[in-house]
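subagent[fold] <- orchestrator: predict structure for attached chain, return tokens only, no commentary.
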Amino acid sequence: MDLIQGMRVFVRVAQLNGFAAAARDLSLSTAAVTKHVAALEGRVGARLLERTTRRVNLTESGRVYLERCLECLQAVGDADAAMSEITREPMGMLRLTAPVELSPNVTPAITSYLHTHPRAAVDFRVSNRTLDLIDQGFDLGIDVLHPVHASCVARPLATSRMAIWGAPGYLRKHGRPRTPADLAAHRHLVFAEPRLRTELQFHKGRQSRKVVLQPSFLSNSGDSLREALVAGAGLHMAPSFVAAADYAAGRIEPVLPDWTLDPLKLYAIYPSRRFLPAKVRAFLEALSAQFGRDPAEDRWWPR
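subagent[fold] -> orchestrator:
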């Protein structure tokens, strides 16, 4: 039995003093109304209504139960109204996570979202470790990996080209690699999270070359590696969203530009597509505006 519907039927019978009148009001058959009331009486173990040929009267138990039903139905109505408001207008706290190095590109979307939706708030946590959105209570995550949890949805956001970068001073001093094999003679600055990546596969047309780097400097701090790169301490593999500003300023340049590495695919990850809260939908729109509408485009790579 649908308890809430049973309560609604019982309330209308009591308010209209009759089964037939309640049936007409609720667009139900009289038999269905009678069945709902009988099921309620069986549930509570008490007679709620006294039936006569002319009218229906509440029993003492019925009067007590009617008062409680009205309270329950009001609470259900309030809950529905609250959820309806939440699904229409972004409000409340949006819990968001992204990799540390990507956070400068996410912050403008957060700012735009907060300007547009004054009843919304954001709790933004950065981490280079793989997080479980559901277990850790995040509404949305931005990452370069598909979610491992079967109930998560991954929406493509953007593409970021990977490249080997070097400072002009380092390249003048140590020479410029001409082929992937030349990288073996150089010092390398390697990012250690979420996993160490020292085995690289380069592509050029139909050619493919595998290279294993020997790190001179390992770190889980992207800022430290970037500073070491700019200072000429070695070569560094980094995505375009990390390297774009230093390249534009002339502090670094791409090495082996004719050879490509597999790009990073950026995703917005959220627990479920069903009943998606308005705050998540609105922030996805802010992300699309920030990262561009074409997920295959690298907006950071120089034209």
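orchestrator: received. Logging for downstream: The chain has three domains: 3-88, 92-160+264-291, 162-255. The first helix runs from residue 3 to 16.
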